[in-house]
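Quality-control log, excerpt.
Job 1 of 2 completed; input and output follow.
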Amino acid sequence: MTIDTSKRSFLGGAASLGVAAATLPLGRFAYAAGKPVEPMTLLTSNASFDPVRPEMGRLIAQACKSIGWDVTLAAEDYNMGINKVFKEKDFDMFIVRWTGRANRVDPETFTRMMFHSEGNYNKWGYNDASIDEMGDAQQREMNVEKRREIVKSMQSKLYDDVAASPIVHPSMTNAYREDRLGNVVPQLGEGIGSLWTDLSMTVKKGDGYVRNGQTSALKNLNPVSVTDSNEFKELRTIYDRLLQVGPNGELVPWAATSVNAVDSTTIDITLRDGMKFHDGNPVTIQDVMFTFEYYKKWKAPFFISSIEKFEDMSITGANSMRIKLSEPHAPLMINFFAQIFIIPQHIWKDIPEKAGVDDVLNFANEQPIGSGPFKFDYWDRGKELKVSAFEHHFSKPKCAGMIRITYGSHDAMAAAIEAGECDRTRYILKPTLVQDLNKINGIVGKGYASHGWYGFMFNHTRGPLQDRAFREAVDHLVPRDVIREVIMSGFATNGGSTIAPANEFWHEAAIKPRPNNVKTAKDILAKAGYSWDSSGALHYPG
């Protein structure tokens, strides 16, 4: 039987604290009884990368003071902040935008990957046995309706436990020059920053190259170590994947002509004929086999939870192979085969030794060679990345190529769009700037439906953030209405569940955002045994 690649196939706590310290489950949450709740820091990216996050952060930090808790905002360089959270795990709370990349229409990212104790993205120490059990169960469940029920139960549990605080579900706000670009095709979740826009758009005048605006510099071009959306967007132009998520969310064949399920644990893959890498070498089924083995060997962070289930692999023909899984894996099609980048064996077999690094995950891959629709030209770190249309690709782009330009701020990027120096925003643009640009002749600025979210994540291993009651109180401090209408200019809906309402098939509609109410927050804390001194400072129970 052939795997169903239709949209429907994948669209389809602790006890309350008592007043007395003796009632506290110390193994779960220990504190200095009666002592002041310690000050903490709320980490965000700086305004040059995304001005929305520090604006949200200031409102939330200010609201925390209303309950007698001192929270300081720290706005840092985007890449430095990412390192603090995802590598060093050195943070109290941080505001993040989880982009609604096309593959994230599958619920795996916003449930198991983020909150399972061994989840790829779980760097905040959330640990709950029932979430682990449900997260593993939904992976194994191949009946889409039964899987949906498990996923909805996970959302309810995560909401009840305040595992994170989804603030708003934003639209993808972008702008482009319609007097320069034609045939701009948006994609579900990604708007005009998608691969389908890259492939379809034409350039009406000039050298045929599309100038894409971005506000963050690239860290590397390593497909094995990639976790960040900014790198994903560039790598998918240079490297091919076996499947792709189409403009409307459906799975479509790409480098593979077929991916067939023999049974729930057996997958047959047939590779497209005649593909070439950018250096002229043929793409073979051996390269695909090598790719899987290599990513598994080096524990590629984004892919390891899927590829570790590859129990056996074998070449079955000139262009075909078979994979045996250790157990059924429902997210495999969209989260793995539609994501993993095919790498050339003749280059990567000598990495990391040839590159002089001890771990392939530390390899920058500054001159990438793939088989994708665009071939690498040059990378001027911190400034530009240039790729050109690959003549031999089965889906040759309509433009001559693309130049990724890094701007110092959203304002600078918007000014470049207005001046005609930039053709398209590649990621997001501040909503107020989108509104302003849309008023200019020759420019289209709008928001596109997305299933991502802005939210703040708690470090569940630190201080009062270990306490469910405390997290619930803090969630009531988030001024979602103000953030939606003022900061997001209406390009958003209020957040409650970790799966957005736009992802209707998987979203648990019964979950409602917690209302912004300081009194409610204080009542929750008082009931949990917290108190306030004469100066209004918040103290632990006891």
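Job 2 of 2 completed; input and output follow.
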Amino acid sequence: MPYKQQQGKPRVILFSDGRHAAGLDCFEPPITKTDHGIIANEVSNSGIDAIVHFSAGEGGTVLYNSKVAQRWGAVTKKWDHYVWSRTAHALNQLINDGHDPLEVLCKSCHDKDLLFIASGWVSIHGGTRKQHEGLGRWSAFALDNPEFQVGFDPDPRANTVIKTRFSFLYPEVRRERLLIFQEMLSKYETDGIELNLTSEIPYCRFDQVHQLAPLMTQWIRDLRQIAAKSEKLQGRRKQIYARIPAHSKAWELAGYEIQTWVSENLVDGLFCESSFTEDDGIDQDVDLTDIVNITRKTNCSVFYSLHTNLYRQFHRSAPQAAIWAGAANAYDQGVDGIAIADHLWTPNGWPWTPQEYETVRLLGNPQLLATAKKHYLVRSEVQDTTGLRWLPGRSYQLPKVLLENESAEISFRVSDDLNHWNGLNRIKAVILRIRFGGIIINYDKVQVKLNRQLLPDFILKKVDMTYRLVDQASSSHSITPYGYAYDYYLNRNNYPKHGRNYLIVTLLKRDPNIAQKFSIDRVECRIEYQLHRHYKEEPLQY
């Protein structure tokens, strides 16, 4: 039997939001069960072991033929957007034709030796008929029970969280969520469930989190009992996964007793995130030490939940080498696998292209990742990412403004053992790029040190980014912020080391006649390998 079916331990997981790049939205009704199960065909033999499929949303509706919850669009009389209407028509048509969408997905994945994990929000949001009925995703329970909303919270952190979210302190709210996940476990031949515990947290007022923690733990205990009963009835292992903040100090603030969940075997795996919205961008430098230590020698697996948005001028999604770099850094810290956690991971649009397959093929193999090209990116704020900024591990190192004679220390993690691979003649190039904004190239003087070693000018190439124009799809039609890229072509004398690296940038001299601020906007490190020691260039084309 395949490894994943024998052990039940996936290595590479793809999150699917159930609509985008899935049958319900991509095909106009009438759709077939083959249409709906297309994701299993798409990822079969790609290196992906499991699908985490969005099945129950924040508004209380579900994307299957539930007996305990309303379907998408159940209370909608007039749609705000035709695509949401299309989702409802496709969903209802499948069910009327005798095909429960969740059953279709379970069978489609199992036929392709994929694990199927049904996912849902643990948070549920309230709303009003006037504002939310036309969206399709709100249920009568969510719309008609405003008394369950958290509402006003005097804590300043509450300004970053939606006030209409329901409080998990109410037994009615816990029961409503429990019944949905129970149904996913017991009614369907899923391989388990995934609890989305990172969206719109905490699930109560901030001063009530101490009350939430034991209730949340008991709620998960109840789910574990349900999973155990379903295992016996179906003869299929039922796993429980939880999506949590990666930083250990965030757990108590959110009301999560992670150590208890692990020690009592309440969860089979943890998806650890440091990005929580589409605006956050990729984070390759998340500290996973605490969660790896807690789960060591237990039955609980740890996955780095990798978000791949980039939001730079040339790429909406992180390039392939950046995804490999993030995965390699996570494996270097001891994780068991990688989850691609974007709600819509199609960097080149849909359907998938060969590049997507090439990317995921390596994600389950740290040995292959070791000599894959890497693009390490120091996390820089490129969007208005105020949400959940109060959570530990949410800070951005860049951009940084410097005055004359000021220095900035910037750190980044590298998984590569460059000295080792250089000894085997496998290194093709190592390039450290620093993008400066507002720099006056013929006057300003900058000093750069990597791990306390001064980088000499003879390995530096300066790239003028001022008024570079890009295609008109760009909002500004130009590369911003203006400035220069300093490209240092590193050699064995100044390679970044395996692990944590420290870059110190000092502005030694600044043109006093320029009002614009001098800034460090981007720091990147590109590493490229030769296929083998005799392989110098691309093969000849005949």
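Post-run check on job 2. The chain has two domains: 3-377, 400-529.
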